[in-house]
Each structure stands twice: as C-alpha cells, then as structure tokens.
Design goal:
6-stranded antiparallel β-sheet, Dna Ligase, domain 1, Glycoprotein, Type 4 Pilin, 5 helices, alpha+beta
C-alpha cells in the first residue's frame, strides 16, 4: 500500500502548496486492480499524536486511490475544526488511511464492540461517526463513546439511549509516521 501513501503525500504537497487549480496527475503511480476498486476511506492527519484533520466517505463511490486523494485534500483543507494545513506542517504530519467495510445496521447497542467496530449514530437529521480506533485512543467505555458521539452529532450526551439508529463497520488502518 506504499502507493496510497505516495498519493496521500503528493496530494498534501500539491494542495497545500497551491495546486488546487491544476489537475492532479496519477500516471506516475502503479495503479493495481485493488487500487482501482471502489472503497470508502477516511484520511486522518496527526501531528505529534494529536488530531490535525480527519475526513472521509462512508460510501464506496470512487476508486480507492481517488478516495484517498480526495479525502487527503479535504482533511488538510476542509476539516472545519482546524485551520488549513500549512506548508510548514507538511514535514511533520503523520498520515493514517482507513479503508472501511462491513457496514451493518444493529438492533441493539450490545452488538457494538469498542475497538472492533466503528459506529455511526443517527437521530433525525443529526448524524456522526467514529472510526474504530477513536474510542480506544481516548480510553472510553461503550457508554462514553456513545455519549461523545451524541455530542458530536449535535445532540445531548444521552440522546443515543432512545430513538436512535446505529450502524457498525470495520476498517483496516494503514499508518506511516514519516513523510
């Protein structure tokens, strides 16, 4: 999966250094059949272990390599929680790529396994997602995860306890700490 990291790194350089008006070239990458298959992905950017940006897609609507490319742009420039990534940060950013699969509706929150599943919560128009590693990194219990996820969705912390739908999923996380 080195190619995915090459694409993510080159995308960050390209978009942060002002390449948004140009077309991102992909001819220099070895695009295998797997990289051309549609996948849902998230790109997470970290600096010294702290979150710096994280955006992704829940539906597999484009090839894996393009999903990583587009989510790298969005995580670096369009995550509303952070200012856009600066060129000074490019050398110290760690990139994590999550490839999502196995989405399933669950009838009971008992089916959600912290550290094994990512989770999507929805109640009316409010919706939020946590990747499987979030609860583990934060040291949260299942209830703490759901309280935090409810808040992230713009609801009261205990909103998950009633009238809420859930989906779980799994992901494979690819990490590379040096650029």
């Amino acid at each position: 999966m080195q190619t995915l990291f090459d694409i993510a790194n080159d995308t960050l350089d390209w978009c942060v250094r002002g390449g948004r008006g140009d077309f991102f070239e992909t001819h220099q990458y070895e695009l295998t059949d797997k990289l051309k298959k549609d996948y849902a992905t998230f790109v997470t950017l970290k600096i010294e272990g702290g979150l710096r940006g994280c955006i992704g897609s829940l539906k597999a609507v484009e090839p894996l390599y393009m999903s990583v490319h587009n989510n790298a742009i969005n995580a670096s420039l369009k995550d509303f929680r952070f200012k856009p990534v600066s060129s000074r940060e490019l050398e110290i950013i760690d990139i994590h790529i999550s490839i999502l699969s196995g989405f399933a509706d669950i009838d009971s929150i008992d089916e959600f396994k912290v550290g094994e599943h990512g989770i999507i919560i929805q109640k009316g128009f409010n919706r939020a997602i946590y990747l499987p590693e979030v609860a583990v990194e934060q040291g949260w219990t299942k209830e703490e995860t759901l309280d935090s996820l409810s808040l992230k969705a713009g609801m009261p912390a205990n909103a998950w306890r009633e009238g809420t739908s859930f989906q779980v999923f799994s992901s494979v996380v690819l990490e590379k700490d040096e650029r």
